[in-house]
Amino acid sequence: MKKTILIIVYASFTIFFVNCSAKGQKFTTFQKPTKDKSMLYIYRPNSMVGYMVSYDIKDANNDHQTLGTLKNNGYIFKEVEPGQKALYGLHKQFKTNISIKKNQIICLKSFIQQTQVINGLTGITPIIPVDINICKQEIQNTRGNK
Fold first, then answer.
1. pTM higher than 0.70 for the full model?
2. Sign of the CA dihedral 58, 33, 128, 111?
3. Measuring CA to CA, which residue among 91, 134, 90, 84 is closest to residue 109?
4. For 23-76, what is each residue's pLDDT tens digit?
5. What is d(CA 101, CA 123) in angstroms, rounded to the nearest whole number?
6. What is the domain partition of the chain in residue ranges?
7. Least buried of 2, 59, 81, 95, by fewest C-beta within 10 Å?
8. E strands along 49-126, which residues?
9. Helices and strands of the chain, counted as H and E runs
10. How far apart are CA 55 and CA 128, in angstroms?
11. Residues 6+ apart with CB under 8 A from 126
12. Cα(106)–Cα(126) distance, rounded to whole angstroms?
């Protein structure tokens, strides 16, 4: 009886957690931007910290436009105009400023830090620039968001 209950509990958690991560197509290759545009890739490696949390990535320099929703083990990409971007996840107080040039592919990594309380905020979501070669290795394990 105990074994049956444990199997049911394990199966329930497995189904629940599987639904929390990105389920789109597995990353294959970087797309080249159209002329005079740029491609922005943001990925989030698989992690148990904040596993069930998804969040929008926004650009404070563009009327807080949402670039996409980032899930655990997922990636988003968007063709953007070159220029200054101020990107943030859960809290706009923690922006990452980047300068994007024409015809450039930019790769950023985001994650949820251990839950901490900073000025009443929890779940800080840093967005950090990543070298394109490191990105090529790490983004391979992610999936697009549906």
1. yes
2. positive
3. 134
4. 678 888 999 999 999 999 999 999 888 778 889 999 999 999 999 999 999 999
5. 31
6. 2-144
7. 2
8. 55-59, 65-70, 74-80, 83-88, 96-100, 105-110
9. 2, 9
10. 16
11. 89, 94, 96, 110, 111, 113
12. 16
